[in-house]
Amino acid sequence: MISSRFIVLASAAAVLAAASAPASAASRSANPIKMFDTDNDGTIDLAEAKKAASEMFAKLDRDHDGTLDKRELAGRVGAKELSAADPDHDGTLTADEYLAVVEQRFNAVNKDSDGTIDAKELRSSAGKALLRLLK
Predict the structure, then answer these.
(1) If 0-12 CB within 10 Å is exposed, 13-18 middle and 19+ buried, where does residue 48 land?
(2) Fewer C-beta neighbours within 10 Å, C or N terminus of the chain?
(3) For residue 76, which phi and psi values (nearest 5 degrees)?
(4) CB neighbours of 61 closer than 8 A, spacing ≥ 6?
Protein backbone atom coordinates (compact mmCIF):
# COMPACT_ATOMS: atom_id res chain seq x y z
CA MET A 1 0.00 0.00 0.00
CA ILE A 2 1.26 3.47 -0.90
CA SER A 3 1.67 5.76 2.06
CA SER A 4 0.19 9.24 2.07
CA ARG A 5 3.68 10.61 2.72
CA PHE A 6 4.93 9.04 -0.51
CA ILE A 7 2.00 10.53 -2.45
CA VAL A 8 2.69 14.00 -1.02
CA LEU A 9 6.41 13.76 -1.83
CA ALA A 10 5.74 12.47 -5.36
CA SER A 11 3.20 15.24 -5.94
CA ALA A 12 5.61 17.89 -4.71
CA ALA A 13 8.34 16.55 -6.99
CA ALA A 14 5.98 16.61 -9.97
CA VAL A 15 4.93 20.20 -9.25
CA LEU A 16 8.56 21.31 -8.94
CA ALA A 17 9.52 19.59 -12.17
CA ALA A 18 6.60 21.11 -14.03
CA ALA A 19 7.32 24.56 -12.65
CA SER A 20 10.98 24.49 -13.67
CA ALA A 21 10.35 23.31 -17.26
CA PRO A 22 8.48 26.42 -18.40
CA ALA A 23 11.01 28.64 -16.68
CA SER A 24 13.89 27.12 -18.62
CA ALA A 25 11.89 27.27 -21.86
CA ALA A 26 11.01 30.88 -21.14
CA SER A 27 14.63 31.77 -20.43
CA ARG A 28 15.69 30.17 -23.71
CA SER A 29 13.13 32.16 -25.69
CA ALA A 30 14.03 35.32 -23.75
CA ASN A 31 17.69 34.79 -24.63
CA PRO A 32 18.16 34.02 -28.33
CA ILE A 33 21.85 33.35 -27.81
CA LYS A 34 20.96 30.33 -25.67
CA MET A 35 18.43 29.17 -28.27
CA PHE A 36 20.95 28.99 -31.13
CA ASP A 37 24.37 28.74 -29.44
CA THR A 38 25.02 25.03 -29.91
CA ASP A 39 28.67 25.20 -28.82
CA ASN A 40 27.79 27.22 -25.67
CA ASP A 41 30.41 29.91 -26.26
CA GLY A 42 27.97 32.75 -25.61
CA THR A 43 27.75 33.82 -29.24
CA ILE A 44 26.12 32.75 -32.50
CA ASP A 45 28.35 32.00 -35.46
CA LEU A 46 27.23 31.71 -39.08
CA ALA A 47 26.99 27.90 -38.96
CA GLU A 48 24.72 28.08 -35.90
CA ALA A 49 22.58 30.76 -37.56
CA LYS A 50 22.27 28.69 -40.74
CA LYS A 51 21.37 25.57 -38.75
CA ALA A 52 18.57 27.46 -37.00
CA ALA A 53 17.46 29.01 -40.30
CA SER A 54 17.35 25.59 -41.98
CA GLU A 55 15.11 24.31 -39.21
CA MET A 56 12.89 27.38 -39.55
CA PHE A 57 12.74 26.95 -43.34
CA ALA A 58 11.45 23.40 -42.86
CA LYS A 59 8.77 24.63 -40.43
CA LEU A 60 7.69 27.46 -42.73
CA ASP A 61 7.50 25.21 -45.81
CA ARG A 62 4.00 24.03 -44.94
CA ASP A 63 3.25 22.64 -48.39
CA HIS A 64 6.61 20.79 -48.46
CA ASP A 65 7.46 21.95 -51.97
CA GLY A 66 11.02 22.98 -51.06
CA THR A 67 10.33 26.69 -51.46
CA LEU A 68 8.86 29.52 -49.42
CA ASP A 69 6.41 31.87 -51.07
CA LYS A 70 5.37 35.30 -49.80
CA ARG A 71 2.61 33.78 -47.66
CA GLU A 72 4.93 31.22 -46.04
CA LEU A 73 7.57 33.89 -45.40
CA ALA A 74 4.93 35.79 -43.39
CA GLY A 75 6.72 39.13 -43.38
CA ARG A 76 10.15 37.76 -42.54
CA VAL A 77 11.48 39.06 -45.86
CA GLY A 78 10.23 42.25 -47.50
CA ALA A 79 9.20 42.45 -51.15
CA LYS A 80 12.42 44.21 -52.21
CA GLU A 81 14.62 41.72 -50.35
CA LEU A 82 12.59 38.79 -51.73
CA SER A 83 13.06 40.07 -55.26
CA ALA A 84 16.82 40.51 -54.73
CA ALA A 85 17.18 37.05 -53.16
CA ASP A 86 15.14 35.32 -55.88
CA PRO A 87 17.46 35.02 -58.91
CA ASP A 88 15.01 32.98 -60.97
CA HIS A 89 12.21 35.50 -60.20
CA ASP A 90 9.62 32.81 -59.47
CA GLY A 91 8.40 34.60 -56.33
CA THR A 92 9.74 31.96 -53.98
CA LEU A 93 12.92 31.23 -52.06
CA THR A 94 14.61 27.85 -52.05
CA ALA A 95 16.49 26.77 -48.94
CA ASP A 96 19.77 27.95 -50.47
CA GLU A 97 18.26 31.34 -51.35
CA TYR A 98 16.83 31.65 -47.83
CA LEU A 99 20.22 30.80 -46.31
CA ALA A 100 21.86 33.43 -48.55
CA VAL A 101 19.53 36.04 -47.00
CA VAL A 102 20.47 34.72 -43.56
CA GLU A 103 24.16 35.12 -44.40
CA GLN A 104 23.61 38.69 -45.64
CA ARG A 105 21.74 39.60 -42.48
CA PHE A 106 24.35 37.84 -40.32
CA ASN A 107 27.10 39.89 -41.95
CA ALA A 108 25.09 43.09 -41.45
CA VAL A 109 24.83 42.31 -37.73
CA ASN A 110 28.47 41.26 -37.37
CA LYS A 111 29.85 44.82 -37.60
CA ASP A 112 33.13 43.92 -35.92
CA SER A 113 33.71 41.08 -38.44
CA ASP A 114 34.75 38.65 -35.72
CA GLY A 115 32.56 35.89 -37.17
CA THR A 116 30.23 35.79 -34.19
CA ILE A 117 27.21 37.69 -32.92
CA ASP A 118 26.78 38.48 -29.25
CA ALA A 119 23.68 39.55 -27.32
CA LYS A 120 24.41 43.27 -27.80
CA GLU A 121 24.64 42.85 -31.59
CA LEU A 122 21.38 40.88 -31.62
CA ARG A 123 19.57 43.76 -29.92
CA SER A 124 20.30 46.03 -32.91
CA SER A 125 17.71 46.49 -35.66
CA ALA A 126 19.86 44.32 -37.95
CA GLY A 127 20.01 41.67 -35.22
CA LYS A 128 16.25 41.69 -34.85
CA ALA A 129 15.91 41.30 -38.64
CA LEU A 130 18.20 38.26 -38.50
CA LEU A 131 16.21 36.75 -35.63
CA ARG A 132 13.03 36.94 -37.74
CA LEU A 133 14.64 34.39 -40.07
CA LEU A 134 15.74 32.09 -37.25
CA LYS A 135 12.68 31.88 -35.01
Answers:
(1) buried
(2) N
(3) -70, -25
(4) 67, 68, 72
**Distance from C-alpha of 106 to C-alpha of 128, rounded to nearest angstrom:** 10
Same domain flag for 2 and 43 = no
Residues of the chain with pLDDT under 70: 1-29
Which residue type occupies 67? T
Confidence (pTM):
0.77
**Predicted confidence (pLDDT) per residue in 86-114, tens digit:** 999 999 999 999 999 999 999 999 999 99
Contacts of 95 (CB under 8 A, 6+ apart): 54, 57, 66
Q: In this structure, are 52 and 117 located in the same domain?
A: yes
Boundaries of domain holding 82: 32-134
What is the maximal distance between C-alpha atoms in the chain?
71
The stretches of the chain forming alpha helices (DSSP H) are: 4-30, 32-36, 46-60, 70-73, 79-85, 95-109, 119-122, 125-134
